[in-house]
Hints:
Blueprint: H1 4-7, H2 65-79, H3 83-96, H4 103-116, H5 120-127, H6 137-153, H7 157-164, H8 182-194, H9 198-211, H10 214-228, H11 233-242, H12 248-263, H13 267-283, E1 298-306, H14 313-326, E2 336-341, H15 346-359, E3 362-367, E4 392-394, E5 406-408, H16 413-427, E6 431-437, H17 440-455, E7 459-466, H18 474-483, E8 487-490, H19 494-506, E9 509-511, E10 529-535, H20 543-548, E11 556-557, H21 568-581, H22 587-604, H23 610-619, E12 622-624, E13 627-629, E14 644-647, E15 650-653
Parallel strand pairs: 1-2, 1-3, 3-4, 4-5, 6-7, 6-8, 8-10, 9-10, 10-11
Antiparallel strand pairs: 11-14, 12-13, 14-15
Amino acid sequence: MRVGIYLVLLFAACAASGQTAPSLPGTFGSGEPLPAPVVPEPGKPSTGGGAPNGPEFSGGASNDPGGDADFGEAKARFDAGDAAGARPLLEAFHDHHAQHPARPAADLMLARLALARGDAETARGLLSPLTSPPPDEGTGASARYYLGLAETRLGKFARARELLLPFLPPAGAAGPGDDSLVELRGALAEATAGVGDTPAAIELWDAYARGGHEPEKAYAREQITELGGQLSPDAALQTFHAATSRGLARALLGETAASALRGRGDSAGAADIMSDTAASRVAVGIDPSGERAPAAGDPGRLGLELALSGRFQPVGEAALRAAMLATGAPAAAGMQLVVRDAGGSPEHAADGVEDLSRGESVIGVVAAIDPRTLPPEDDGPAASGSRRGLPLLVLDSGSGKPVGSTFFLVHTASARARALAQTALRMGARDFAIIGPDTAAGKALRGAFRGDVVAGGGKVTADVSYPPGSTSFTSAVAAIKKSAPQVVLVADGADRLELIAPALAAADLWSAPWGAPRPIGAPGKPRPRNVLLLSTAADLSPRLLQSAGRYVQGTLLAPGFYAGAADSRGRSFVDAYRAAYGQDPHATEAYAYDAVNAIRTAVAAGARTRAELTDALSAGTFDGLTGALHFGPDHGRTDSTRLYVVEGDEIKTYH
């Protein structure tokens, strides 16, 4: 996963700390002055002299007063952190003042804005001309730095290292401080891992963590754990000895390094390493130095039990990214994330939750695991009951039965289908057809939809199924056409919807907004009929519009969350996610983000123990990206899911 560089765009400001002088090859440079971070700090002007927002231009007035004024206005917006306002002004300056002496400065700012929104290709196109030859030394240095960040995002790791290494402090020198080097080290760690220099990458992630906030430390811990798993015991031992004393690398590599010495019969050396590791784990905050009350939990500590390895690693990583964004929300400052890898086995997942509960004393846990793999909550005093009363928010839709203090974050597919049925009934629709896969989940979804249609006074004119994974739907669509429905539900994911909608259109059943006039049709051919198309559309993406846009106009969708919708509730989240990770979030990230914010909001409102948090989650309503979170008696979601509608070449929030 290549996302380390993007974390710093969101967490650039951090508390100063003393820096350890680098010594491992690939972790030091020549100490060139460090340019400003990609994202400018509002209120700090980008003047010369090494000010926080970078020496973009300090040349004074030119013989082009109009250009001077245009540049001044654009730069003022940029310095204020107004990316949306600065971008069009800088682009206009770029287009109309090609010979102005501030043109390189404008291009640098445009490149930084492109990096901040995840457009590395555009950034590279702007920066490359500024590096050979550079218009001046300062501009050239800044262009090389930002170009190195862009090349890292684009996977050009060797070139990125060549550009970025000179900005690291020299060997044996402390440099400007760990907090100032977070952005640079994150990029270099990614690039260094990309070229296969694992020990140097681990040391860079260690240094990255020293300057970062808690979410960055959690991410560095994930990266070091992943990279450490690629090392042999002997290589881990060498990396351990090269790592910073009392740092994150020593905290995480100790067991593997000690195993190398045990294999040589050096038990005393192994014991020394484990002692060093124990002290390092306390120093970096992984293990507590004193006792915590296990039953109450610490309101400043939130657990994440996520699959960071194994089959479900992509889900775990997505949830981790969202959780790290959520800790930047204003609801409750200072909450520390404590991460455990659920791995690929139920036993591993259960052990991780147990450790978070007893060893880390978190107040609650957000988990991407199957809740059925956990041991039951114990009401007795036995050690196995240390999970007793621990609020567990699971990225799952639940079984419909109460499960202690476990809460289920995901709207069930059946609930999403019911929301679609109720919306169509309110419009006045009465004749419904259903098409979906012949699976247990598909049957349950179609049954829930049918039940709400009938309860609302409608009727189901056709209910047809197809084998899972089908790509041809001729017979199913023919059956639907015979039933003459007003509404058709595609009870499947977005990938099937993009195949079924054109098949319906080929049978003269065209998706259209409810109440749209019926098309006249071509001479000598059957007149098309409008249908209101509905779909649960899991894994919805812009691909639906690209491949089947004309066939899904007016379609109502219930995917849980869609990043592309111009929705004020989710826009700040989507923009921050794109800036941090260079890609769009999906429903998994949105549900995880909502979970963390619900816990933070409850803590900010006064929940100081696990019992109080459980009560707050049971009774409260928490506005989120996926709805106004509210849990019923079975701790499943009872609030309405968000709906979306296709309008032209956009998918918008349906109101």
